[in-house]
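ok trying this again, last paste got cut off
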Amino acid sequence: MKLLVLAALIGLAPATAQAQVAAGSVPNTFDRPAQGAPAATPAPAPTIPPVTAPANARSEETLRTIIAGAQAGTLDYSLMTDDLAARVRAQEAQLLPIIRGFGTVQAVDFVGSQNGADLFAVTFATAATEWVIGFQNDKVAALLFRPAQ
């Protein structure tokens, strides 16, 4: 019985070797086109939009002005739309002490823009915050801040 199994295994060995040789002789069309077939034209490289300045300088400058005014207790409402100015005035008594309590500004870092508004990470002496500022007709129309996440 052992002799019969061994003979069967030996009989299969040449067929397996032949199959490997046959498979090795098939052209690999993923590496190069088959002979006689036209070479494929490469796809055009994707276009990458040009890099723009990461921060809106006007947004940062205006944000710094508003924060400095809040810390001094004299907000410049002329920088804001009438609607925003009315909303800030209504909350001024609560907002100014909070912003003063943050201490001096240590850093203002641009984070990104979305839907026409800019996001800044503002680090104060005692707090890390995030501020959103957006403009409409050259006036601040959106101004929000929250603790940094």
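PB: full thing came through this time. Helices lie at 2-24, 57-72, 82-101.
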